[in-house]
Amino acid sequence: MGSDINVYGMARAFYERYGVKSTAYASVQFAPTKYSKIVDVETFPGFNEDPGFIENMTKIAKRYKNLNKKAILIACGDGYVELVSKHKSFLQKTFVVPYIDYTLVQKLISKEAFYKIADQYQLPHPATKIITKADYQNGVANIEVPYDFPVALKPSDAVEWLEIKFAGRKKAFRIKSRAEFDDIVAKIYDNGYTADLILQDFIPGDDSNMRTLNCYVDQHHQVKLMCLGHPLLEDPTPADIGNYVAILPEYNQKVYQQIQHFLEAIHYTGYCNFDMKYDRRDKTFKLFEINLRQGRSSFFVTLNGYNLAQYPVEDYITGTLKDKPTVYGNQDPKRHQLWLGVPVKVFKTYAQNNADKKRALELLAAKRFGTTVFFKQDFNLKRYALQKYAFYLYNGRFKSYFKENKGDM
């Protein structure tokens, strides 16, 4: 479900492991999946919401009804996760649907609700205050900001946020003053957003303090894969802030055990992805959110030897996953590969100079790195030119936005 870089990464994983071509269904087609030999994309207007989604999936299901092979549904965006889980009882009559029920999705997909559950399981997260539309209507000047500036501000409802447009809109905001806070909150609600906002104590430090964890939990609610990534650089473009563009593999058994306990306790199923940041003030990793899908940059997992496609196949098709032990990724530094989502030059110019960058440069020098979209077995001139151009555009993005959105952190 979808057509972005996440979709291409999963299609590539299936192709590398099983030699099969994937079919993607989406409302529009994005550049990462264009001109590809490993994934076919079919688009349907309005497919990213009901009734367009279920109407088209009802027709699509008929194609697969009499096939001898099982087809696995993989949702590659928050909205698609919500739609697939909402219609799970219908979809699983035809497809393998490795997702939790809609009731649990509703508890986890909202950042606000996730923090409440995190508190129940002693999972650390940034100090948080919830702002409602009613708070704004009572006067933005009356909203208390209990943390020192800068502060972090982001929407609780990521799906609704996709539909909100205004000058200065960002995926998340780092706000430096009270005047800026009042202005941004007003713009958000005046332009149609209705859900809550999350105001948080800003955890100091550059992008290299982030971590991203991808997991797979089997149908028996046992964690089978955990692979931790250490982002060194994020996209500074307003609409894409928080999207990782350089990731080192990392091993941390304490983090693995903490998250494994949580996932098994709530009876999770399927892929998930956690974003967290190291807080040097109390030496803990603070969780930002759980994504109920593999991460956008999750191909770094497959790149490092843990093919994401094989887990649902072994779970639901061959039935061999149940008896396998949990894989705690990245224990052997000799196997580490650097994942990049930008040109090498951009990484070298903008990533913070530290020991982690030094390690990344060593991997680059040793040719131990890779990307999601540049795949030798899917080469043609049209595709290569498009992906090369998409990478080239990052030069301008970083030049325009890095200092404003990522400087002085």
TrEMBL record:
GO molecular function: ATP binding; metal ion binding
PROSITE patterns: ATP_GRASP
Keyword Ligase: no
Domain of life: Bacteria
Listed Gene3D superfamilies: ATP-grasp fold, B domain
InterPro entries registered for this protein in UniProt: ATP-grasp
Assigned keywords, A-Z: ATP-binding, Nucleotide-binding
Segments forming domain ATP-grasp: 115-317
SUPFAM superfamilies: Glutathione synthetase ATP-binding domain-like (SSF56059)
Name under which the protein is recorded: ATP-grasp protein
Organism: Loigolactobacillus rennini DSM 20253
